[in-house]
Each structure stands twice: as structure tokens, then as C-alpha cells.
Amino acid sequence: MSLVIDSVRKRFGAYPALEGVSMSAPQGAFVALLGPSGSGKTTLLRILGGLEIPDAGEVRFADLNWLAVPTRERRAGFVFQHYALFRHMTVAGNIAFGLNVRARRTRPAKAEIDRRVEELLHLVQLEGYGKRYPSQLSGGQRQRVALARALAIEPRMLLLDEPFGALDAKVRKELRAWLRALHVRLGLTTIFVTHDQDEAFAMADLVAVMHAGKIEQYGTPADVKRAPRTAFVEEFVGGAGGTAG
Amino acid sequence: MSAARRRLRGPVEESPAARLLLIAVTIGFVGLFLLAPLANVFASALSEGRAMAFAAIGDPDALSANRLTLIVAAIAVPLNAIFGVSAAWAITKHDFPGKSILVSLIDLPFSVSPVISGLVYVLMFGLQGWLGPFLRAHDIKIIFALPGIVLATMFVTFPFVARELIPLMSDQGRTEEEAAVTLGASGWQVFSRVTLPNIKWGLLYGVLLCNARAMGEFGAVSVVSGHIRGLTNTMPLHVEVLYNDYQFVGAFAVASLLAMLAIVTLVLKTFLEWRYADEIAAQHRH
Q1: Between B179 and B14, whose confidence is greater?
Q2: CB-based contact, B282 to chain A, within 8 Å
Q3: Is B97 an interface residue toward A (CB < 8 Å)?
Q4: pTM metric for this prediction
Q5: Three-class DSSP labels, chain A
């Protein structure tokens, strides 16, 4: 059930977003894609989620040719940077969406869906918020609804695009610990994109430092911090380490 | 202290005199150019008593014009709504070559005089037109008949729905649709459960405008209709015919029907905005 990414390339017109990216992660790993904007990290995440099709390369996950699986059948729980909640649906409607769109023979009964929604609201600590609309929630609450919605489909992997990007520093720190704990509890292979080295090192088991469409270094936070392999990694990672002491 | 504070103004607020002047100018213009003519239409219709006005509206030719106008709108508006939604969907949610040309083409009916658009159909489908011999051989009547009137109306009202939806949908972006697909929704489910609910107010507004114009269109329809009384006269054409016959009461009576249609459109729009204010605001705030 491990994830293997092999020589993935992607161009947007003349702009090379990914220039041969390879990495692998064991089942249940928490992987951070760390890099400045334009480094290709979001493109790689979108390829895993089925929202972009690479020009070349292979992805294998759980012994599947992952790129051949249609987007809607991948069950890759994707949490978007700005949450992309359905604004005309209640919180409960948002969370239930992935269950409600299933074909009748695999769709759970209404009562079962309601029960699952309650369970997920409890999991993301938003009990009693089911009847509200996304516009009535704070940023941190929307973030957790987006996560609950992604978890409702019983995803095979979890993909988070700058999950805390739009939140203030205090909420970000709280959610960091909470998400890490949730990851441990669920055991899902989770890939998250961030440009914040503190966040990557605090949460991830493995960090891939990306630059200009390539992975410059891939390893545990401790290894990357102790022995940066290229000048770029040293500078990018050192920025944080330097100020911290 | 409190009196002094009351005299303080916000940075973009004008002096009371300037404010009064602005309001007076606005009300003056609205009254002079919008309300006075509208009141005049109703006053002229009733100038010789209610009985005369109702007689003009109940005239068989007038009834036939009403019916034709309703039929034309009932065909043209839904077709343009479907077209507008699919065009806006194609343009805002997908990338393809020639997209910007398509966007400008949709605007064409706005920049062409309605008379010209009517003439184009005459040139195509008229007896002397390109397809004239073929249509005559198969006994198909388009010009001076219902199909021609529907075509001309559709041409003129073509951009309303699409124009309303394109900015709205490009503003909303694609991420909600992307989210829906990753959650397992099919193409149709994405459209019916995510895209359509997000644009319903804009769509309704576009349909209202499209309908008002479809029922009121004069120029293009005038060219293709042939003005056959009781057969190919729509309401606006019937007003002209009556007016040219010096039947002023009748002309204004039918015109007040059209004016009432405009008022109903406005009231409907205001009601919807008021009734669903929360939902509309929620959509905009997000």
C-alpha cells in the first residue's frame, strides 16, 4: 500500500512545472512537499488527486496504476487551499456530498449518512454546526469542514494543499498539533503542500524540498536539517534554523 | 459635544446641500424620463374610459398578437437559457482554442442593429434568399410566419443569459467543481448539484431580462413578420399598426399591457432579491 512516484513530468504551455519527479512513501506516512511558490509542489499534489494529468511518468499506489484510475474513483481526499466548500449547502450537506453522489446500490441509507455526518462533525470538533452555511464559519472552522468532507468518502490517501495557508498564526499552531494527532489516529497516507519550513518540520515524517520542478532533497526532517544536500536546501531550510538559533 | 459630533462628516460624505442636489437631480431624471412617459401610457389608454381600453385589448387581433408574443417568448427564452448556460459553462470551466473569439461572437447581437438581424434572416430564408428555392420546394414557410419571428427574436435576445453568467461563473472559478469530482461526483452531478445552484440567481435574472426583451422586440421582428393582422403581428407590432391607423386609445391600451409586463418583471426581480436576500448575500460574501 505504499506510494511510488516515478519520473513525473508536467508542462503548462512552455512552462515546465515538474521536470522528472520521483519519490516514494510507505503506507501511512505523513509527507510534506516543501518549497517556494512555483516549485511545482501543488502541481504534484493535483496530479495525485487526479486534477492534472502528467505528460510523462508513473504513479503507483496500493499496487494500482494510480494515473489510470479516473479522478472520481480514486477516493483521494483533497483539501483545497481556500477550502472550496459548496457555498449553497449547509455544513452537513457539504460533508454528506461524497456519500450522496454515490450510485444507489453503494449509497448508504439516509439515516446512516446522517450518523456518519454527526460522527465526522464530532471528529473535527464542530458538533452542532451542521445546519450552518460555510459563510457563517471562521477560517479555521471552514478548514475543518473541508477536512471532514474529504474524510467522509473514506479516502485512500489524504491530500492537503497549503492547509493552513489562509489562517492566522495562532489558529495555525493549534490546528497543526490537532491534524498531526488526527493523522496518527487515522493512519492514512497524507501528502501536504506548504511553503512554511517550520510547519513541514513540525508535522511531517518525511519532507521533500522542491525547487524549480525538481525534488532537491527528500528525507526525514532531522536529516534534511542536519545535512542539506544542495545550496538551495541549505538556504531555504537554513532561513528558519538560522533565526531560531 | 454631541451636536458638534453630529456635524462631523465621513471622508466621502458631501455637504447636506450637495446631497440634496444629487438626490433632486436623480429623482428629477427618473421622474421625467421614466415615470412620466409610463404614466402617460396608462393615462392615454384610459382617456376615453375603461370600456374603450378593455375593448381594444379584447379585440381578436389584439388577442392574437398577445398569443403570438407569448408563444414566441415560450420558445425563444428557454432555448436561449439552455444556450446561455452551456456557452457560459464551456467558456468559464474549460479551456479550448478560439475561446476569446466565441466570447466576442456572443456579443454580436448587441452591436448589430435589430433591423439588420431581421434582414439577414430575410436574405437567408426569404423567397429570393439563399435557401428560398429549397424552402419553397418543400413548402416550408419561415419568413412572414412563426419560425421567422422566433428566429429573429432568438437572435436579438441571444446574449442576455450568457452575458449574465460568464462573469459570475468565471468569478466563482472551478475549485468547487474540482472538489465535487474528487468526492466522486459524475459530470452531470457536478453540474446539477454544484454549478447550477451557484448560478441560479444570475440565471433567473438573465432569463427575466431575456424574456422582457423577447416580448418587447420590435425591429428585427418587424422585418420578418410581414405584419399580417391576426396572424403574424406580435404585441409591439400591433401597437404600431393601431397607432398608424389613428386608433390611439387602442395603441396605448395594448402598450400598457407591455408596460405592465415590464413592471411585473421588475417586481418579480425585487421580490426574489428580497425573499432570498440571505442566500444571495451568502453566495456573494463567501
Answers
A1: B179
A2: yes
A3: no
A4: 0.81
A5: CCEEEEEEEEEECCEEEEEEEEEEECCCCEEEEECCCCCCHHHHHHHHHCCCCCCEEEEEECCEEHHHCCHHHHCEEEECCCCCCCCCCCHHHHHHHHHHCCCCCCCCCHHHHHHHHHHHHHHCCCCCCCCCCHHHCCHHHHHHHHHHHHHHCCCCEEEEECCCCCCCHHHHHHHHHHHHHHHHHHCCEEEEEECCHHHHHHHCCEEEEEECCEEEEEECHHHHHHCCCCHHHHHHHHHHHHHHC
